[in-house]
Structure formats: C-alpha cells, structure tokens
Amino acid sequence: MTEISTSPTHSFLDYAPAPESKSILHLKKSYGLFIGGEFVKGSGKPFLTVSPSTEETIAEIANASAKDVDAAVAAARKAYDSTWRKLSGADRGKYLFRIARLVQERARELAVAESLDNGKPIKESRDVDVPLVAAWFFYYAGWADKLDYAGLGPNPKALGVAAQVIPWNFPLLMLAWKIAPALAAGNTVVIKPAETTPLSALIFAEILQQADLPAGVVNIITGAGDTGEALVNHPDVNKVAFTGSTAVGRAIAKSTAGSGKKLTLELGGKAANIVFDDAPIDQAVEGIVNGIFFNQGHVCCAGSRLLVQENVHEEVVERLKTRLATLRLGDPLDKNTDIGAINSREQLDRIRTLSDIGEKEGAERWTAPCVIPDKGFWFAPTIFDNVSTSSTIAREEIFGPVLSVLTFRTPAEAIAKANNTPYGLSAGIWSDKGSKILAVADELRAGVIWANTFNRFDPASPFGGYKESGYGREGGRHGLAAYLSSAGWGAK
Ligand code: NAD
C-alpha cells in the first residue's frame, strides 16, 4: 500500500487558496423582523450575528418580543383569512415555483451567506444545502394542486397558522423543509430561525418580496429561545413544527399538550453506521467520513456511532485515519475546505467537554493532524476507538466531528447495539449482500436507513424519527400530513 503522509501540511497535495468572494452579498448593517411582507423594527434588545470562523460581526439582528410575536401571528392569520386560503392550489403552486426559481437565481449569494454565518464549507452550502432548498420548493409546488391525491382523504384542509422553530445546523434547508409543505397545503407561517444563524432566512425574506408573495403569508422573526417559546405557545397558532434539541422538544410537547395544536418534532439522534466484513471497504470509509464529518458533524442524523464487524475493525479504522489526514480544515469560504468552523463557542465547549469525558471513560482518542486557525471556533476530526456501549460518548449526541467506534461479531449483535440508544432517527448499513441489508434494516428502530450510502436527502423521501428523536415526518407525501387535516377539524 502506498504510504500516505499524515503531516499537517500535506505538501504533496497542496492547493492554492481558492476563497469564494463575498462581493456577491449586499449585507445590511442591521436587519429587522419580516412581518406582513415588510421589514420592521423589533421591540426587544437587538443582538449580533458573528462569523464562527473569524468571530467578526456580520450584522445586527432584531429581537422579537412577545408583542412582536403577536404582530407576526396576527399578520399570518390575516393573510390566511383574506388571501391564502382563498387561492386555488394551482395559484399557491405558482408562488412556490417562483420562490424555487429565485432561490436558484440567488444560489451563490445564499451559499456565501450560509457559510459566512454558519461556518459550513462553501462546497457544502453551494452543492448540498442551497440546491436542496430549491428542490424542496419545486417538489412541494407540484403538490399544491394535488392534495386530494396525498392519501389523506378527499379535500384535505389546511390547519391555519403554522409556528415553526428551526436550528442552526442547516439554517436555510430547515426553513425550506418547514415553509414549502406548509404553504403548499394552504397554511400561513411564522418562522423563527436560530439565534446564531439568522442571515440566510433574512435574505430569503427578500426573495419572498421579489416573488410578490402576498403580505403575511410568511413572517420571519428573529430572537432566542424566549421568542421561540412565545411563538409556539401563542394561542392563535394551529400547528407547531420544531427541529432542535430533545430537551426543548420535550418542553414544547408539554406546553402544547391539550391545546389542540398539531405538533411535529424533529429532534436529536445517535445513529449507528453498521459496516459488515463483506462491505466494499473503500466506499464504506467514504460513507463513514460523509456520515459524521459532513457539516462538522452538526447533523441530527449523523452516523456518530460506527459499528464495525470485528474481523475488519483494524483495517477500517486504519483506512479511516489515512483518509481523515487528507481533509482540509479552515476557511469555510475556501472551495477546497472539507471541514469548516463549529457554529458557536457554546457548541465547541460542549464538544470539548463530551470528548474529554470519552477519554476519561477509557476510549482511545485519535485526532486528525490539522492546523487550527488562531481565531474562530474549530475542532479537528476525532475518532474514539474501543468505545463501550455504556460510554457517555456512545449515548449522548455530541453534534460535532467526533466518531465513536464499537465492534460486533454477528448481525444480531449489530442490531442490538444499534438499537441500544434512546434515539431513533437514522442508520446506515454497509454490505455486499442485499438480503442482509434488508433483514437488518427490518430490525432497526430508525426512521431513515441508508444502504451503502449515508446522509442522502431527497424532497420526495420522508424523514423523521422514533423514540427521543421525535415524531412526524418531513418530506414526501408524508410531510404534507403534518400541515393538513383530513377530518375537517383543522381550519378555523
Ligand atoms: P435548541 O433546541 O436549544 O434550539 C433550536 C431552536 O429552538 C432555536 O431556534 C432556539 O432559539 C429555539 N428554542 C430554544 N429554546 C426554546 C423554547 N423553550 N421554546 C421554543 N423554542 C426554543 O438547540 P441548540 O441549542 O441549537 O442545540 C442544542 C443541541 O440540540 C445540540 O447540541 C444538538 O444536540 C441538538 N440539535 C439537534 C438538531 C437537529 O436537527 N435534530 C439541530 C440543532 C441542535
């Protein structure tokens, strides 16, 4: 086998820097709340959004108080009653198609904004996030006039006003996952992006203006957890959709219980990526890398637990280390960057704390040889080998570029270990044998299971979890069910 240098400089593979220009952005110094089709001032104390790779301020962001939440919900209600519910599905679809095309037109700008504000590599925001955002709007645009065929009975009805709260890991994509089906189904929306990544949502608000979407159909309010809490608990909301931590999801489930609000929760995960000894090992190694180091591991369905068959364990881990040593960590706007910045100091501290616990509990730590920039929030790709099922890092979601490696001998042991988690969002299976893949997939308690691939998303495919990973499905025909009432009780 050719020896591959693991020196941090990778001199034989050096690329010249290839930064994407920021000149495409027309950033404002400060952003208001997008309510009733216009940007308005927030009445809370504004906050700053910073670039996690440089710690530089990007813009000042309005903070929505309970009063502003009231105004946003009132705007959504007015738009629902006066316009949106009266439009035909075909006309709603036209708006969605228009939004999808505008996202494509402004794709580069959105990708740069996303990488700047979130810290993810531009090749991911450019080639994954933004194209999927457009795909989601195109897909649900097609459904808007075909709701009778969604399998929810004849003439399903919109619910009314949807309150949506999203996290910071895929800011624009999570917005698309929420807004596209809601509008296609005939609901109006108030959405709150995460406090560390509001930028792309605010540019998206400009796209809505460009698309001439009737005022108030989508309202975008910025702020932290208290704004989200006021939104989901607002009495004039009919539907709540939340993506984020299990702790907050649980609090929302409690506070909305008995309120009549329809609720979907997309929470955390601790996915098993199972590699059998008959798997194509090179492909599996790529899949493991994509499974846990994509988006710095800030992925709810990340393959954070590698379950590898004992007889190929050593080989897989060695090849993985060799591969990880070639990944480039650094400027998210550089087109050669593989690993960007951790989204916030708070998240970095959490990753560090959990990794230290892993080491204390006896797992073998290996860190990829990367040069860490002086400024910003960074964490080099890390592998923990010989992790036991009871170890904290095998149980808790780290939400960072950290892989825990466990072994198994038989398919039954792999299944038992994979299911030994309070979560149930996703899993991966690597094997040459289709029958083995199907038999194992049948036994896994996970909402999404990938075979010989990982972290693939398609708007036509439903996504969601079991157990502490939440309930409800996003994507596909199933994603419409969250925003429609087939029993005729939903719409006010
Ligand atoms: P979080 O749940 O605190 O925040 C997600 C969103 O909910 C944000 O917009 C936030 O402002 C809002 N929010 C916070 N408290 C709220 C409340 N009481 N009521 C309503 N909205 C509220 O998640 P986080 O702090 O961004 O991350 C914490 C952990 O959550 C991560 O380390 C990770 O484990 C997990 N996480 C999972 C996902 C996912 O996609 N499943 C995404 C982000 C984070």
Mind describing the biggest β-sheet? 7 strands, mixed
Low-confidence stretches: 1-9, 488-492
Which cofactors or ions or other ligands sit in this model? nicotinamide-adenine-dinucleotide
Count of DSSP H/I helices: 15
* DSSP strand count: 20
End-to-end separation = 68 Å
Cα Rg = 22 Å
Oligomeric composition of the shown chains: single chain
Structural class: alpha/beta
Task: Summarize the amount of helix as a percent range.
Answer: 25-40%
- The outline comes out as globular
Q: How would you write the strand order of the largest sheet?
A: 14-15-16-13-12-17-18
Mean pLDDT: 95
Q: Beta-sheet strand percentage?
A: 15-25%
Core attributes:
alpha/beta, disordered N terminus, 37% helix, binds nicotinamide-adenine-dinucleotide, seven-stranded mixed beta sheet, 492 residues, globular, disordered C terminus, 15 helices
